[in-house]
């Protein structure tokens, strides 16, 4: 999609006061203690107790730790528990 479309969408989003993450479907990562909540992801690429790789709309995310467990997941959201040591992003 071209620059013109993105400018148009940005103007619509701003005029309707729609939150950017909702309008652009940006991923949202919330870390609270030993819980991680990820919203707006595309797919789970790999899952092991020490490494979780997720495809985002714009790149990939890796969560490294110990005892990682996907508590639940839906098409839009997932919750992970365990001891998280590192979260990294790749484009």
CATH architecture: Sandwich
Would you report the number of β strands?
6
Number of domains: 1
> Which strands sit side by side, in order, in the main sheet?
1-2-6-5-4-3
Largest sheet data:
6 strands, antiparallel
Classify the oligomer: single chain
According to CATH, the fold-level topology is: Immunoglobulin-like
**Helix count, DSSP H or I runs of 4 or more residues:** 2
Amount of helix = 10-25%
Terminal Cα span: 19 Å
Strand content: over 45%
Low-confidence segments, ≥5 residues, pLDDT <50? none
Q: Over all CA atoms, what is the radius of gyration?
A: 15 Å
Instruction: Give the integer mean of the pLDDT values.
Output: 84
Order of helices and strands: HHEEEEEE
Shape: elongated
CATH class: Mainly Beta
Pfam families: YabP (PF07873)
Protein name: Sporulation protein YqfC
Plain-language structure description:
The protein has 91 residues and is of the alpha+beta class. 20% of the residues lie in helices and 58% in strands. It is built from 2 helices and 6 strands, in the order ααββββββ. It has helices spanning 3-16, 20-23; strands at 28-32, 35-39, 41-48, 51-56, 59-73, 77-90. The chain has a 6-stranded antiparallel sheet, with no helix packed on it. The chain is elongated and about 45 Å long. InterPro entries: Spore_YabP/YqfC. This is Sporulation protein YqfC.
């Amino acid at each position: 999609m071209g620059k013109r479309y993105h400018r148009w969408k940005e103007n619509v989003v701003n005029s309707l006061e729609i939150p950017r993450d909702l309008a652009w479907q940006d991923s949202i990562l919330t870390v609270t203690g030993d819980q991680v909540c990820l919203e707006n992801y595309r797919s789970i690429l790999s899952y092991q107790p020490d490494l979780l790789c997720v495809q985002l709309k714009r790149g990939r995310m890796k969560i490294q730790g110990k005892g990682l467990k996907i508590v639940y997941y839906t098409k839009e959201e997932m919750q992970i528990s365990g001891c998280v040591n590192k979260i990294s992003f790749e484009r």
